[in-house]
Amino acid sequence: MNKKVKFNYQKKGAMEMSVGTIVTIVLLVSVLVLGLILIKNIFSSATGAVKLTDAQLTNQINQLFSADQKLVLAPSTATIKMTRGDIYPIKIGVKNRLQGNVGQNPTFDYKVYVDDPDVRNNCGIDANTVQSWIQGGDGKNIPMPTGEDIHMEPIGFNIPSTAPLCSVKIRVEVLVDNANYASSAFFMQTI
Fold first, then answer.
1. Which end of the chain, N or C, is more open, meaning fewer C-beta atoms within 10 Å of its C-beta?
2. Overall CATH class of domain 53-190
């Protein structure tokens, strides 16, 4: 008779252990899923807030032109923060304000380059390394008739994840028929 009682207690103990284990596993899985959803929402909202879409950049360029401006950059801040390990877009907007007959076709060139003599002291790397991060930094023979609306060019900054935290002056220069037309500069700050 003692054997049966002992055997029943073991079954009851085994059953209680499995129910407790199942409840614990269900709770842990629920917490894990909720944590993953929370992390996904945080990262998706952060990247959405940082990056401007192409339409937003175009809209911002159109708003920045005043009556006499020839060149604008979007985003239009003096310092543009760029995340390491990411590609950061900017747009160059050029408007043909040359005097002459409507319909004339001068050719425009642009170049985006490092204009910081202290880049080695500030960042510990040379200007050529920073220059290699610029994608689409040269444009040649872009026809833009007199009186035409704004011409826009996209530029990308591919900042490697190993880039140092620093600030570098970048210049955008526009030429018309090999003569200086307009110039602007901003600071690229890696974060």
1. N
2. mainly beta
